[in-house]
Design a protein that fits this description.
Layout (H helix, E strand, L loop, with lengths): L15 H12 L4 H5 L5 E4 L15 E14 L6 E8 L2 E7 L3 H7 L6 E6 L1 E3 L2 E5 L2 E4 H7 L4 E4 L3 H5 L5 H15 L9 H6 L5 H9 L4 H33 L10 H10 L6 H14 L6 E6 L5 H14 L3 E5 L3 H14 L7 E4 L5 H13 L4 E4 L13 E7 L6 H8 L7 E6 L5 H7 L4 E5 L10 E6 L3 H13 L3 E5 L7 H18 L7 E4 L5 H12 L5 E4 L12 E6 L7 H8 L10 E6 L5 H12 L3 H12 L24 H17 L9 H11 L10
Helix pairs in contact: 8-9, 9-23, 10-12, 11-12, 21-22
The structure holds adenosine-5'-triphosphate.
The site of adenosine-5'-triphosphate has 19 residues, from helix 12.
Keywords: ATP-binding, DNA damage, DNA recombination, DNA repair, DNA-binding, Helicase, Hydrolase, Isomerase, Nucleotide-binding
EC number: 5.6.2.4
Protein name: ATP-dependent DNA helicase RecG
Length: 700
């Protein structure tokens, strides 16, 4: 049979039906190509040996030489195991097998030196190593092709089912044997020479069987670059197609609404960052192409005013605009806020949420269709089919990660032509990640806070200091300030969480009795109208304390609130903590955030709390968050390829990412459809990777 990279993995010698099934189900490896792209996630230096007396208690992978002196059966039932005593010249340890006893017994050679390799545990006063990889020392030395032994991902799981790291290694060797280690080049000659990259074949060989450290590094660099390069190519191409294919409404006028608002009604001077972002948006709106822009700005950086002024540009050109927010509370708040800002502008603004009365709803539908309504604000209720605009020119989406891409595109179909789209997010996505995740959107960043803002002073307090915290609250209220107290609410432990919230509320009402103190409470189980009522009482300053679950998290704007107390802060993620803290520090007063926790804290929780205490910078916080959780968890990343990276890491390899993006841009600028002969290989590989064979029709 003729072997090529699409050959099913079953044909590889040494694989067989069982292993093939395992490779498919556990690692998604179907073909030779898939196997070759299974990259080791680390390497162990096989020339390094440990002595038993050097072992550390926290298990690490180690390699030790020594001999087996005895074997015995221990335990019964599921705990039954075979234990070998293994010694070197510094001490003894145990090797343990839960399966394969007979095979081990039969093959052990007493008195011979072995090299064992695996993770050590500390158990009952001795070190042990479960299911070690073992080889006679003399064999080991013969077999040692390279000092660096690759360790493949998730082989621990597979080892239990019969595919150990060593087996994978052998299978990989077989693959190189059958293919003679020759693989098609997938990057252009120019790129290879400009970046001094090694060839594909050499890179693949050295990633699996590194000849030395230098070649390994070169192989890693080349493969990471390639991976990131094709993702960037894809994102930029998507963007190009979008721009050339989808015509947008052209907003050429800057008219009365915008000018009169800017000159007469703007309550403050815009920051330079706000001005810059508005210029970027204006350029898009007048470019004939449909805008798809992500507006990033830290909490409280003033995105709302930018959204409003963009909507005014739509109105000035005879179009309608809408603003969609993820929760009813936020929609209501935007509605009141924008109404206030526009009160002397003669603009009609309405609110549409799930709880809008049918009669009002009908009126809104009508006004929307005949064009009497200029701006509609609401929740995903805006997406319903019944909601029809006369001419929607701009849709602003607040907090995009709560809406899926599918919902975003639903807005498009509200018109014959898609409206311009502005997505606002306060989740500060590190630039490198934004570039790779949102590469198909244009990104604007408000990287400056309005003047006079003071950093929110953040402290961590243990529950036992609660009385002091209460005193602090009392003092702040005496100064006329308002306080948030937030409780976690996690679906899995919802019942307990509600109980904690209600207990907390009760103890606060005892501690801060009426009539001197007024307290609001808002949580997800309340009716929307009640939530709104309580929220409004707090907004108007009728209540001094707001007890809430995380419904308060995004976007709520009460500048007079100056203290945020977060209960069980260890249970919140970093970006959530930062969002919550962003609810205070929105006015000119000094604000405070108090993170309350019990004494029991995991290492990760400690890092999160320390990060919050030490910085107010959302981008810095997002970087730490990303390190703690990995990009997979970050909202929004599911939409892009970054999650499925095989070798590169958007954080650690951000320099390579930047290179990759740069080259992708330069190449596409000169040759947008990759039609030049020297780009043939890129075009071919791109087609293989993305399966978009006809894509080029749209670009050239
Ligand atoms: N240039 C400015 N000068 C002074 N105050 C400003 C300026 N821009 C916005 N503000 C005020 O700052 C506060 C926060 O603005 P806004 O609500 O737009 O923030 P945001 O970016 O939407 O933040 P979040 O994501 O936290 O909701 C508001 O009270 C707003 O009026």
């Amino acid at each position: 049979m003729k072997i090529n990279l699409q050959t099913p993995i079953d044909y590889l010698k040494g694989v067989g039906p069982n292993r093939a099934d395992l490779l498919r189900s556990e690692l998604g490896i179907h073909t030779y190509q898939d196997l070759i792209n299974l990259f080791p996630n680390r390497y162990i230096d096989k020339t390094q040996y440990y002595k038993i007396n050097q072992l550390q208690r926290h298990g690490a992978d180690v390699q030790i030489t020594g001999e087996i002196t005895s074997l015995k059966d221990v335990g019964t039932g599921r705990g039954k195991r075979l234990v070998a005593i293994f010694k070197d010249d510094t001490g003894i340890m145990e090797l343990v097998w839960f399966r394969g006893h007979k095979w081990i017994r039969d093959s052990i050679k007493y008195g011979k030196k072995y090299v064992i390799f695996g993770k050590t545990n500390w158990f009952n006063g001795v070190f042990n190593m479960p299911h070690p990889e073992m080889e006679l020392l003399e064999e080991h030395e013969k077999n040692l092709r390279s000092a660096m032994q690759p360790i493949y991902p998730s082989t621990e799981k597979l080892a239990n089912k019969g595919i150990s790291n060593r087996v994978l290694n052998k299978i990989m060797q077989q693959l190189f044997l059958e293919t003679k280690g020759r693989f098609e080049e997938t990057l252009s000659a120019n790129l290879l020479s400009d970046l001094k990259l090694i060839s594909k074949s050499k890179a693949l060989f050295n990633i699996h069987f590194p000849e030395n450290q230098t070649l390994l590094s070169q192989a890693q660099f080349r493969l990471k670059f390639e991976e990131l390069f094709y993702i960037q190519l894809q994102l930029i191409i998507k963007n190009l197609i979008h721009k050339s294919k989808i015509k947008g409404y052209n907003f050429e006028h800057v008219g009365a609404y915008f000018n009169s608002f800017y000159q007469e009604h703007l309550p403050f001077d815009l920051t330079n960052a706000q001005k810059r972002v508005l210029r970027e948006i204006r350029a898009d709106l007048g470019s004939n192409a449909q805008m798809n822009r992500l507006l990033q700005g830290d909490v409280g950086s003033g995105k709302t005013i930018v959204a409003l002024m963009s909507m005014l540009m739509a109105l000035d050109n005879g179009f309608q605009a809408c603003l969609m927010a993820p929760t009813a509370i936020l929609s209501v708040q935007h509605y009141h806020g924008l109404k206030e800002l526009c009160k002397s502008l003669n603009i009609s603004i309405e609110l549409l949420t799930g709880s809008t009365k049918t009669s009002d709803r009908n009126k809104i539908h009508e006004a929307l269709e005949n064009g009497d309504l200029n701006i509609l604000i609401g929740t995903h209720a805006l997406l319903e089919d019944k909601v029809k605009f006369k001419n929607l020119g701009l849709a602003v989406i607040d907090e995009q990660h709560r809406f899926g891409v599918a919902q975003r595109s639903k807005l498009w179909h509200k018109n014959t032509s898609p409206p311009h789209i502005l997505i606002m997010t306060a989740t500060p996505i590190p630039r490198t990640l934004a570039m790779s995740v949102y590469g198909d959107l244009d990104v604007s960043v408000i990287d400056e806070l309005p003047p006079g803002r003071k950093n929110v002073k953040t402290v961590h307090r243990y529950d036992k200091n609660r009385l002091k915290v209460f005193k602090f609250i009392r003092d702040e209220i005496a100064k006329g300030r308002q306080i948030y107290i937030v409780y976690p609410l996690i679906q899995e432990s919802e019942k307990m969480d509600y109980k904690d919230l209600m207990d907390g509320y009760e103890s606060i009402t005892r501690e801060f009795p009426m009539p001197e103190y007024q307290i609001s409470i808002v949580h997800g189980k309340m009716k929307p109208a009640d939530k709104d009522f309580e929220m409004q009482r707090f907004v108007k300053g009728e209540t001094q304390i707001m007890v809430a679950t995380t419904v308060i998290e995004v976007g709520v704007n009460v500048p007079n609130a100056s203290v945020m107390i977060i209960e069980s802060a260890e249970r919140f993620g970093l970006s959530q903590l930062h969002q919550l803290r962003g609810r205070v520090g929105r006015g000119a007063e000094q604000s405070y955030c108090i993170l309350m926790t019990s004494h029991k804290l995991s290492e990760d929780s400690k890092t999160r709390l320390q990060t919050m205490v030490s910085t107010n910078d959302g981008f810095e916080i997002a970087e730490v968050d990303l390190k703690l959780r990995g990009p997979g968890d970050l909202m929004g990343t599911q939409q892009s390829g970054v999650l499925n990276l095989k070798i590169a890491d958007v954080i650690k390899d951000k320099d390579i990412l930047q290179h990759a993006r740069h080259y992708a841009k330069v190449i596409l600028k000169a040759d947008p459809s990759l039609a030049l002969p020297e780009h043939k290989v890129l075009r071919y590989t791109y087609g293989q990777l993305t399966k978009y064979k006809n894509i080029w029709n749209y670009i050239s």
